[in-house]
Amino acid sequence: MNLKGRDFLTLKDFTPEEITYLLDLSAELKDKKKKGIPHDMFRGKNIALIFEKTSTRTRCSFEVAAHDLGMGSTYLDPTGSQIGKKESIADTARVLASMFEGIEYRGFGQEIVEELAKYSKVPVWNGLTNEYHPTQMLADMLTVREQLGELKGKKLVYMGDARYNMGNSLMIVCAKLGLDFVACTTKEYFPNAALVAECEEYAKASGATITLEEDPQVACKDADVIYTDVWVSMGEPDEVWEKRIKELSPYKVTSQLMSLAKPTAIFLHCLPAFHDLKTKIGKEMGERFGITDMEVTDEVFESPQSKVFEEAENRMHTIKAVIVATLGE
After folding, report:
1. Marked catalytic residue, from 163, 229, 275, 317
2. What is the Cα–Cα distance from 286 to 241, expressed in whole angstroms?
3. Is the pLDDT of residue 83 over 90?
4. What is the pLDDT of residue 62?
5. How far from the centroid of its chain's Cα atoms is residue 303's Cα?
6. Is 163 a catalytic residue?
7. Any catalytic annotation for residue 133?
8. Which of 63, 241, 264, 322 is most buried, by the most CB atoms less than 10 A from its CB?
9. Is 17 helix (H, G, I), strand (E, B) or coil?
10. What pTM did the predictor assign?
11. Percent of the chain having pLDDT more than 70?
12. Distances (CA, A) of 320 to 52, 117, 238
């Protein structure tokens, strides 16, 4: 499998075999790290990390992965780059590609990372856009495979707002790899119809199913994975919170919903999570609306079924695999 020189923008661009190869490579690199086997095959190379949206896991994953591979990394925070302000995206791509072996972008519209890739002569990796989050998908699928043994035929239920990067990307990866995908939310928050149709075509090839369901009791029955995300995405205005809390509260992941899933079922969340009031926003929402949690209860988040921290660690191993595969040894 040769992915050298490829951009990593959305999993729509990759075949099931290529995605599986990246998961296998992730597992191999994870094993090497756990055993202390050096894999610093990219000494002297460097990558640029453009973060128009800040992040804990994505930044740390890229930086640690680069360090393990013997590479240097340069972090450009929201104020550290002139991309789209004083310098066009095309010019930024050409400047960075002349100095670095790879470019990561985390920010807003998918069109930005696509344009970076168009004008860059080195691989461009999507660390998150409004529409897609492909590196998270590799971490999620590696976690499911580690915890449940296989992917094909498993049922993954995504609870909450399924219109953006997480709902979109989970639907794509499940359809490609043969997992039955359920988006459980109100009709207003269902994924885009055109993308659903596209994923239904992937599902035909893999044997998967795509289901849009409004009833959490129906959706969670016999699930293998129950997944949720924060209800308000980065960059959205604060006034959105009231509407989302009102409309999405029926889709909070609770112990009662987890009890409907299989006994072996796991809970996943891409983090950060509002499962208590120990954050600034959580405390504020608790005071405003009289709630103690949002998209998931603390009981579920801290339960043995919760594999969110294993999932978070896997961000680093899978991002490392993307770097290795696209730069080539």
Report:
1. 229
2. 11
3. no
4. 98
5. 22
6. no
7. yes
8. 322
9. helix
10. 0.97
11. 99
12. 21, 19, 34
pLDDT bin (cut points 50, 70, 90) of residue 85 is confident
User: Does the active-site annotation cover 217?
Assistant: no
Query: Could you tell me the end-to-end alpha-carbon distance of the chain, in angstroms, rounded to an integer?
Result: 12
- pLDDT on residue 234: 65
The answer to whether residue 82 is catalytic is: no
Catalytic residue among 6, 133, 244, 275: 133
Query: Catalytic annotation on 67?
Result: no
> For residue 267, what are the CA distances in angstroms to 33, 228, 277, 287, 298?
25, 8, 20, 27, 12
Q: Residue 227: beta bridge partners? A: 158, 268
Ranges of beta strands (E only) in 242-325 are 266-269
The yes-or-no answer on residue 136 being catalytic is yes
Return the SS3 of 264.
coil
Task: Determine if the peptide bond prior to 250 is cis (ω within 30°).
Answer: no
Q: What is the pLDDT of residue 168?
A: 98
As given in the structure block, the two tokens for residue 113 are 């990372």
The CB density around residue 119, as the number of other CB atoms within 10 Å, is: 17
Query: Average pLDDT for residues 69-79, to the nearest whole number?
Result: 94
Catalytic choice (270, 275, 293, 317): 270
Tell me whether strands 124-128 and 102-106 are parallel, antiparallel or unpaired: parallel
Residue 328: what pLDDT?
Answer: 94
Annotated catalytic residue within 57, 145, 275, 315: 315
Tell me the pLDDT tens digit for each residue of 245-304. Answer: 999 999 999 999 999 999 999 999 999 999 999 999 899 999 999 999 999 999 999 999
Instruction: Give the separation between CA 307 and CA 313, rounded to whole angstroms.
Output: 10
CB atoms within 10 A of CB 124: 26
Which of 59, 136, 180, 224 is catalytic? The answer is 136
Catalytic: which of 106, 163, 244, 317? 106
